[in-house]
Amino acid sequence: MTVVAEKRNEMKVRVPKGARLTRFVLSPVGKILLASIALVTVAGVGVFTYFYTTYSKLIDQKLRVGPFANTSKIFAAPRTLNIGEQLTPEDVALELRHTGYTESDRNPMGYYRVRPDGIEIYPGPDSYFRRDPGLLKFKNGKIAEIVSLADNSNLYQYQLEPQLITNLFDRNREKRRLVKFDDIPQVLIDAVTSAEDKRFFQHSGFDPFRIIKAVYVDLKQGRKEQGASTLSQQLARELWLYPDKMWKRKLAEMMITLQLEQKLSKNEIFEDYANQIYLGRRGSFSIHGFGEAAQAYFGKDMRQLTVAEAATLAGLIQRPGYFDPSRHAQRLQERRDIVLGLMRQNGKISDRDYAKAISTPLTLAKNVVQSQEAPYFVDMVNDMLTSKFQDYDFQGHSFRVYTTLDLNLQRAAADAVAVGMEQVEARLKKQKRYKTEAMPEPQVALVALDPHTGEIKALIGGRSYGRSQLNHVLRERPPGSSFKPFVYATALDTGIEGGPHILTAGTTVEDEPTTFWFNNKPYEPSNFEHKFYGTVTLRRALARSLNVATVKVAEQVGYEKIVEMANRASLTREQATPAVALGSYEVTPFELAGAYTIFANQGVYVKPSFVTMVRAENGDTIFANKQEKHQALDPRVAYLVTNLMEEVMRSGTAAGLRGRNGFNAPAAGKTGTSQGERDGWFAGYTTELLCIVWVGFDDNRELNLEGAHSAAPIWGEFMKRALQYRDYASAKPFTVPDGIVTVQIDPLSGMPATPMCPQTTAEVYIAGTQPVGSCPLHGAGQPGMTNVAGWDNSRPVETAPVATTPNITGGEHPVSAQRRSAPPAQQQPTTVQAEKHPEEQKDEKKGFFRRLWGVFK
């Protein structure tokens, strides 16, 4: 009972919670915990402040110069507009925007204003030009008038700002084509935000709804599949951070995102994102930004993207490698369709637009990387600048590099190569050897330049830059018969230098099996398909590319003289041997293009060039190209060689280029096939453009196609396309220099023709080297007529007597009999009356009986 009583009388005392908390805080454990919380809070605030301040300074510094300030730009040559050219103001405005111009007069590159009747163009301080603004007026879809806005004077032409080829000078081989937010089409903005961040223009850098959804889906599926990063977070990660997943990077990403949202507008953030985002690879380059991707994948300006194409680019963002269109086109199309569905779900496109877009096949542009970006050309520019200007950091500063490339011609070259190499492969597949073995990919090189300035206008270094970065334009290969014009130039130069043997285009030589002796060793060349033609003129020997006849010409003038002639044209690997006559010593297509300028440019050699000017960030010019040239050949000799190469295209090995659907402008050229048919060449030019084409295998195996059937068709296809452009369409007959004699001769006798000659042909000579007299076969004693360029031709020209057309070899040598020439020390060539091939004698007899039959009639 006592215990019970005690329990009933027990009193309960309640301690207030505040007192307990106070007692805990005052306890040793509470004090330690409180101090720890305070310390963590202070440390957190300190860390946050430190990172916030650090990244704030970093971002401020980068924003002051721009996030892409260290991107050097490579530009093509400026485009020239002429009165009468078919264009509209909208066409010009589009091209100006592509070069960096806008409608804002604050744009340092320049601005324009579209008028009802035309367009005004105002170059800015960063423009390539230092010139007055201009006005283009249009009528009926053509340029009707060009006016200088400085003094209101009329102009005949106006140059537009050079177009950007690429941004290349970075350590990661990135290609980027910078765009402004105003240039980004709304359909692309809608596609990107629908796929990546549909509340981008509403949130402040972080999307809590998307984060919650991502966490929920990941927990439900048991793996991390959902991305919750906003465009601002992606930009922070892409632009400033390395792609690791450490907590420090996530913290830095958060800090940078907050800074970006405070310092930039949404439009500016989207613009930087559009220029930075990684969108896959083409060849050895990584593609960054929608401007570059639109060109790389669709071959068009970003502003021209369709709904389906915009959704395709937006679909690449998630996993560019996984959706690579060159390898996984089906995956990319499925991803594109998902993006199109999101766009319709978000109300960005209608059901009709969705149905049309989703039914559109995924189609990528072909040859875009080759033609638009000219990767081999850009590599040459890069190599040239980094070697020539070693004190300048082209990878760390924004330089503007202006080149000679003509984008129209570059596209023409890429298309011509694509067409021509398909034909080459079709021919190769017919060869017996490829019935049982796999055929490697044949390669190609094309280089086109202005023969008067040496400026490279188009350059193709191979079939595919993605598969091989070897630039075949710079690769050494034997030029074969494309070197022969230098042999004949040396021969015809005897008309200038004089000497015991003056050779002309009408000089004859015996084309027959021959053994040549050099350094007491025999050299036995043969003609193509082992065909020989007997007595031939130098004109015919070059036109038919006769090897034996050419070596005889070389032996006559001296191998040393040929090497000297080649050196004048900057070909330096030749050696004074009989093989030099047949192009056995290696050259590069680039070198051969420069060498041929001595023929196309009236004897003046012009060194090829491809960079015109380089400007630093502050606008200072650190390099301006100066043309390197020298007189390598007398203009008269250059014309004679050109005239002979016109014959190559008229009746010789390149006659196939002519015809109803062929290339019909005035032109001169020479086919080339190296020994063993390992290389096919064609070198040719008009008055406006010079082009060299090479075709062969990288492993030096035999091509088994002569240049006429490998390189020449590509040359013809390219030149036909070039003629479509005003700058190259004005190909004219080659100018005849003063002191050139044109003589109507009988091709059988090689003497000036008479009215009785059944056949006549015009032959050209250096004045004083032409044959005089009359044809002895058809009415001897009748005067022939001679025309001399630059002379008064109102009466017959009196010239010093010249021996009749000489024969280099001398003696009678039947075509079927093999002749062994004496070693050079013992050989005594003579000059005698020209011989006739049996076929020509037969033709002569027929001519006589025809005339006899005419008498009886």
Please describe what this structure looks like.
The protein has 857 residues and is α+β, with helices and mostly antiparallel strands. The chain folds into five domains: 20-65; 73-166, Penicillin-binding protein 1b fold; 172-365, Biosynthetic peptidoglycan transglycosylase-like (Penicillin binding protein transpeptidase fold), CATH 1.10.3810; 366-479 and 586-735, Beta-lactamase (3-Layer(aba) Sandwich); 500-575 and 739-857, no CATH class. The chain contains 27 helices and 30 strands. Helix 20 crosses helix 21 (559-568). The longest helix is centred in the first third of the chain and has 38 residues, at 28-65. The model is unreliable at 1-8 and 791-857 (pLDDT under 50).
Work out the helicity level: 25-40%
Please identify the top-level CATH class of the largest domain.
Alpha Beta
Helical run tally: 27
Distance between the termini: 173 Å
Shape: elongated
